[in-house]
Amino acid sequence: MAGYRDLLRTPGVGRIIAAQLTARFPNGMTSLAVLLHIEHVTGSYGAAGLVLAATSVGQAIAGPVTSRWMGLWGMRKVISLTMVVCAIAITTMALVDMVLPAYIALGLIAGLSTPPIQSAARTIYPKLVNSRQLAPLYSLDASLQEIIWILAPVVITFVATQVGTWEALILIVVILIVGGTWFVASPEVGRVRIPRSKRRFGKVLARPAVLLATIVGFLLIGACSAVEAGVVATFGHGGLEAGLVLAVFSVGSLAGGLSFGHIPIGPWAMARRMGIVAVGLTLTIASLDVWWLSGTLFFAGIGIAPALAVLFAMTSASVKFSDTAEAYGWIGTGQLIGAAAGSAVAGFLIDGVGPQGAYVAAAIFAAAGALVAVACVRAFPDLRHRDPSPLPDTEPTPVIT
């Protein structure tokens, strides 16, 4: 832990981590709040699902697009614009009674205008610390983001059920504006300029490391989403056990990220970490007892944040600085699609064979991720004795002869 204390003492690191976590806190609240509000207004979970699907589609499309825009117009301009548009869309959804197509359109706009805070933060990190500290910083970031997934759903569910659903959406807007403004106003955001990429949009996916990070991220988050669906189906929406078991899952990820953050990242790092997740999720199939699920999910969680840290580090080390934001945008899109796929597959299996089917789906997603990591191990960079910072942007220099 001493290494993390030294890391947080580095000028700007603590501020950027705190600001980006605050700005991203609504990410863990929006889905539930939209679902509860639209169901309350329309009386239909089907209608709420359509609005939520539109929001997710918008987020998936926006990830690489708005991230790339930061290289064209600057981080502050892009984040400020998207933040304002997103806030207006959510506020309108909260305060104005409309027909379902209008809610769907607003959901899509809110998704498309989700500020690219995550891509911006991970693009800034290599400029804040030295090469030795970068991998631990990615691990710390991946670990601390679990705070969002532990606290945000609890907070928004309490507000929506005890105060009101439109008030819950307004709370999201307030946190979005406060966190986004704090992040944009941070001096580090102004000091880091992303060079304009000279590659065509999407070309960064031709990098094996970026493509692998997108695929493995898709499978990893798909497994996590299937677990969430399975836990809810096992204990019910109103069961206290569901929240506690999912909290234990996130605590395992937090513990794993903080414990493994100092370990050098070699080509087999992803395979080992995804293997932990796969073994833990496979063990969940044996029993639906609350204590068994808590123990096996804690074990599986130990590999999640460390696996995400590998994704971020290998991406950073494999692309030019001008392409990092777009690369992280594609990885985020892969994770969003994985979340949707994991939930959908788990849902069908729950309807067909019961809650245990969701854990089977989660185990298959995680095992597939581990197999991809093993099969493609030669494509994973060896960062044990290498600077994981982005490759420098170079261009020909004219010489007078």
Describe the structure.
With about 400 residues, the chain is an all-alpha fold. The protein has two domains: about 10-195, Growth Hormone, Chain: A (Up-down Bundle), CATH 1.20.1250; about 195-390, Growth Hormone, Chain: A. Helices cover about 75% and strands about 0% of the residues. The protein has 18 helices and no strands. Helix 3 packs parallel to helix 9 (about 145-160). The protein is globular and about 55 Å long. The relative contact order is 0.14. The model is unreliable at about 395-400 (pLDDT under 50).
Oligomeric state, counting identical vs distinct chains: single chain
What name is given to the CATH topology of the largest domain? Answer: Growth Hormone, Chain: A
Residue-averaged pLDDT: 83
| Proportion of beta-strand residues | under 5%
Outline: globular
Number of domains: 2
Helix count equals 18
Helix content: over 70%
List low-pLDDT spans: 395-401
CATH architecture type of the largest domain: Up-down Bundle
Largest sheet: none
Identify the CATH homologous superfamily of the largest domain: MFS general substrate transporter like domains
Give the helices and strands as they follow along the chain.
HHHHHHHHHHHHHHHHHH
- What is the CA-CA span between the terminal residues? 56 Å
Class from secondary-structure proportions: mainly alpha
Annotation, overall tally of beta strands: 0
Q: Give the radius of gyration.
A: 21 Å
CATH class of the largest domain: Mainly Alpha
